[in-house]
Amino acid sequence: MVRLMGAALAALLAAGAAQAAGVTEADIANDATMTNQVVTNGMGRHLQRYSPLETLNKSNVKNLFPAWAFSLGGEKQRGQETQPLVHDGLMFITGSYSRLYAIDVATGKEVWQYDARLPEGILPCCDVVNRGAALYGDKIYFGTLDARIVALNAKTGDVVWRKEIADYKAGYSYTAAPMIVDGLVITGNSGGEFGIVGEVQARDAETGELVWTRPVIEGHMGTLNGQPSTMTGTLNATWPGDMWKTGGGATWLGGSYDADTDTIVFGAGNPAPWNSWLRNAGTPTEGNAGDNLYAASRIGIDPKTGEIKWHFQTTPREGWDYDGVNEVVAYADREGNKRFATADRNGFFYVLNREDGKFVRGFPFVKDISWASGLDENGRPIYVEENRPGDPTAAADGAKGETIFAAPSFLGGKNWMPMAFSQKTGNFYVPSNEWGMDIWNEPITYKKGAAYLGAGFTIKPLYEDHIGSLKAVDPDTGSIVWEYKNDAPLWGGVMTTAGGLVFFGTPEGEFLALDDETGEVLWSFQTGSGIVGQPVTWEQDGEQYVSVISGWGGAVPLWGGEVAKKVNYLNQGGTLWTFKLPKQLAKVE
Ligand code: CA
């Protein structure tokens, strides 16, 4: 009895200490298994987006009901891509135009709201979105469209510090969720269509002071504690002339963290400009001299120093806007091997070794890939050279190279929207799109703050009845276990649960729960606007909750091409929906 009381007292004291400290590194490290909170982007820094909760399951999901809804208000109803965070009675979401909200998780009432004051002349390429915040200590962190990172007191919304990541006038912006690793706030940058240089930065979470920076284009110098550290790669090893200076590689989707190998993993976007002939006039068979490292690559980084540990380039000499930023998920395969998985914009799914980023296997996850016929034993694409957009300098007027049809389209077999891994099935659930494009190259010169493409394009569906395709992908065999087809392109995140459910939303506004083994629709709810957000789940007081934001937007309606007719009737919005399985219905069969 005495011992029990002692233990209870100790637990109480520990809870008090945790509350005073807010979100700890341990909370973050264990987020994937702590079912009463969601304190990281990705429901764990490995980004599996898998909940061990099974209170809500295949037999009772039909009883999932709305608990409350929250409107973002105002006239700024654009794409809502946030992932909610839940901690200590509060939910935090970001909204379009760099807004941040704290909400009472029990009632859905607003506690505070922060609207970033954005300057004139910001240059977001692909809608004014934000994909989420990060919690650490007593603060919450999020990035703004003018390429700044803001730290606020999580309880009050008061600004603690605010720092510039990069110069928005040069085309930099910020939309990803930051990540916390050992007291550092880790950020990337956006702006890959403006000839910027992708970079990863680490700041002291308490003060906002820079600890290290790591540009991801070869030739640029990193910094550590305010001093130059090392050059990224080797100057001009894979870039001609001065092209590396405006070489792109935006690190715009944020990163993941693998605790087992103590490695931060970031993707780097397309090399700039899109016109690949200006970066490599040759063919890839000439070797690696024109690969344009580390654009269109995944990069493993030491969190203490910012040094690059390894890289894996998915699309060398990239020329279709196949940004290599897609999230890298750390997982264990069915035999217990520690792997990374990533589904690239270029249409191929890659399994990598977690120790060194080396290629293990790869396979297509969308149909009709036209730019490459496959991958070689090192994971390098086997190019179909005639499906490279033609060189404008070879054209009679020098103004427009030969137009080719490429699949996937530049918006990718998969874009930013995160996939999920199920520890229950061992499969990945990949939100993909089946589409292609006409694309051609044009001459271009760099001008600060101006689009730096040297390309034109028209995006096109491949099939009459669907573009969107949620696929259950077996990472061990490369087989597609099942597919859920959707008319409009999918643009929101996926979540899996131990209850056997796969949650995701559609641009048509449906929020769906599918059977993880068959793809059968078990539950759906019409949210009133398109879903491009990311669902989460948690439990409180013995009940399981699920939240997702609804609010159509993002890149698709801005770049529609022939795809526009599948989306131009969709209504905008901005409502956070929270559902729960009431206790009395949890056991109903
Ligand atoms: Ca891009």
List the helices and strands and how they pair.
Blueprint lengths: L1 H20 L3 H5 L20 E2 L13 E7 L13 E3 L2 E6 L3 E6 L5 E6 L18 E3 L2 E6 L3 E6 L5 E6 L14 E3 L2 E4 L11 E6 L5 E6 L5 E4 L2 E5 L23 E4 L4 E6 L28 E5 L6 E6 L15 E4 L5 E6 L4 E6 L5 E6 L7 E4 L5 E3 L20 E3 L13 E2 L6 E6 L1 E7 L13 E7 L6 E6 L6 E7 L8 E3 L3 E5 L4 E6 L5 E6 L9 E5 L2 E8 L24 E6 L9
Parallel strand pairs: 1-34
Antiparallel strand pairs: 2-40, 3-4, 4-5, 5-6, 7-8, 8-9, 9-10, 11-12, 12-13, 13-14, 14-15, 15-16, 17-18, 18-19, 19-20, 21-22, 22-23, 23-24, 25-26, 27-30, 28-29, 29-32, 30-31, 32-33, 34-35, 35-36, 36-37, 38-39, 39-40
Calcium ion binds next to loops.
Cα-atom Rg, whole angstroms?
A: 23 Å
Please identify the structural class as seen in this structure.
mainly beta
Number of strands: 40
Number of domains: 1
Percent of residues in helical segments? under 10%
